[in-house]
Structure formats: structure tokens, C-alpha cells
């Protein structure tokens, strides 16, 4: 692997150097941050009605969808992006299609197997990022799609299966996100995903089974869990539906608990003013 992520205190390093330190005139206070974007549907597919995604005169092809993301990555890198999130179960197709009518899930019902096509697409994304010097936040579970795992034991097995795959591929440019916004209603069918103590347990499983990859888990913007913060290597937060002041207050609360750990926001609305609040307060 050509890109190796490491963490020193609350700062990120790529190949032993603080991020952005290679950019002339970049203020030193930004060195070690990991500016990122949400490309959550980068390996998306739908086994129920894929024809719904044939848009603008084009036939939907999950492989082409992934190739188009990979093709765009150099442009994103050139603009300073060093990290992005891609999800095994994707995310919400906002304002278009009900997530409960989509089957975008690579996990078997017992969590012990994963669909090979999803794994190949994720591998392609991670390797493309590796060639550029980028980090991928690999998100395992998304609320409505988690319904395909039969119980909490299956969720635990799913974490183990995915983490073992990441370990066996020897990826060095990955952060593992156990679940996207674990506290949303759809996760209630799996207490281990919905409850803070369950997420803390899954984080420990992911750390162990991945061979030591950095692990975290996000919550909705207004939700804060000291237990999950303590368990995480990287504290993942969301800023959706927050004013700048409320987002600032959230950052202060999280950083007080996180101590000397990096805090990274990997989802927000299109309110770019929140990004400046994050930058000013040492949050990626």
C-alpha cells in the first residue's frame, strides 16, 4: 500500500507527515486535519428495483457508478480533499426514494458472509484512494439496510466479517465506521446498534478483528455519547440541522470528552459555514 494513515494525538498523518503540511502557505493550525466528503453511495446497488435508478437516459450499472467515483477522485484531491466516506450499505437517497424499499446490503442474514461484488467495488475504491494519497472511511451499517441482519449476533458477526476482510487485504488507508448515525429509529430492531453500550462493544470487536485499524461510529448531529467517544479511536460527529453556534457547542462538548483524540465530521448539510466552525476549532 502506498498510503499509510497514522494518528498522533488529535492529528492525522499520511506517510508519516501531518496532512496539508506539504502545501505551501497552508496555515500550520490546519496541519493534521483530514478534510473529507460523503461519497456514501460509492458502491451502491439495489437488488429489488434497480431500474428506478436509470436516470437522465442512462442505464444504472453499479460497476459504472463506482468507476465514475474513482475517475473523479484526482479532481477532489487537487482541491484539497484527503478523505471520504463510502458505505457498504450506502445511505439515504434524500427526497427521492424510501430507503425501506431498497435492498443495498452485502451482508448475509447471519452476518458471516459478504457479497463478492460489493467487496470488489469497495476494494477498487480503497486502492484508487491509496494511489492518490487519500483515506477512506468505510462505513458498515446504515439504518434501514440493517434490517437484513436477523439479530444482534448477526450484527456482531457482520462487524467481524467486514473487519477481517479489511485486515486480510492489508489496507493501510482506512478508518472503520461501525454505523452511520446509530441512534436513528431504524436501528431499534438491533439493540446492539442502537444502544451506546452496544456500539462500544462493536467498536472493540472492529478494532480487534481488523488488526488495529482506527475505528469510530457516528450519531445524529444533536446526539452525544461519552461512552462511544471513549471507545473510539476517531470521534465521528455530524453537523446536520445545526446553527453555527449549536455546532460549536457540540464540538466543545465532544472535545472535552475526547481528550487527545481526533474529531472528524463526516456528514453535514450544505451549510458550508459549519465547515469554518470546524476548521477554527481543530475538527476535520
UniProtKB/TrEMBL annotation:
InterPro entries: GH
Domain of life: Bacteria
Gene3D superfamilies: Glycosidases
Protein name, UniProt field: Uncharacterized protein
Amino acid at each position: 500500500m502506498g498510503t499509510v494513515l497514522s494518528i498522533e494525538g488529535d492529528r492525522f498523518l499520511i506517510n508519516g507527515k501531518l496532512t496539508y503540511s506539504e502545501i505551501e502557505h497552508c496555515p500550520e493550525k490546519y496541519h493534521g486535519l483530514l478534510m473529507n466528503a460523503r461519497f456514501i453511495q460509492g458502491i451502491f446497488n439495489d437488488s429489488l428495483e434497480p431500474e428506478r435508478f436509470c436516470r437522465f437516459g442512462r442505464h444504472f450499472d453499479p460497476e459504472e457508478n463506482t468507476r465514475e467515483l474513482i475517475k473523479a477522485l484526482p479532481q477532489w484531491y487537487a482541491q484539497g480533499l484527503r478523505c471520504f466516506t463510502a458505505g457498504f450499505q450506502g445511505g439515504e437517497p434524500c427526497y427521492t426514494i424510501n430507503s425501506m424499499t431498497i435492498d443495498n446490503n452485502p451482508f448475509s442474514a447471519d452476518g458471516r458472509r459478504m457479497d463478492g461484488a460489493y467487496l470488489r467495488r469497495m476494494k477498487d475504491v480503497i486502492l484508487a484512494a491509496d494511489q492518490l494519497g487519500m483515506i477512506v472511511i468505510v462505513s458498515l451499517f446504515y439504518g434501514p439496510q440493517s434490517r437484513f441482519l436477523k439479530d444482534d449476533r448477526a450484527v456482531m458477526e457482520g462487524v467481524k466479517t467486514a473487519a477481517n476482510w479489511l485486515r486480510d487485504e492489508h489496507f493501510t488507508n482506512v478508518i472503520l465506521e461501525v454505523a452511520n448515525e446509530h441512534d436513528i429509529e431504524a436501528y431499534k430492531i438491533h439493540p446492539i446498534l442502537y444502544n451506546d453500550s452496544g456500539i462500544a462493544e462493536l467498536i472493540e470487536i472492529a478494532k480487534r478483528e481488523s488488526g488495529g485499524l482506527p475505528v469510530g461510529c457516528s450519531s445524529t448531529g444533536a446526539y452525544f455519547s461519552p461512552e462511544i467517544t471513549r471507545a473510539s479511536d476517531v470521534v465521528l460527529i455530524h453537523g446536520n440541522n445545526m446553527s453555527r453556534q449549536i455546532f460549536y457547542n457540540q464540538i466543545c462538548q465532544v472535545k472535552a470528552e475526547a481528550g487527545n483524540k481526533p474529531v472528524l465530521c463526516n456528514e453535514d448539510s450544505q451549510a458550508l459555514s459549519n465547515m469554518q466552525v470546524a476548521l477554527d476549532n481543530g475538527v476535520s
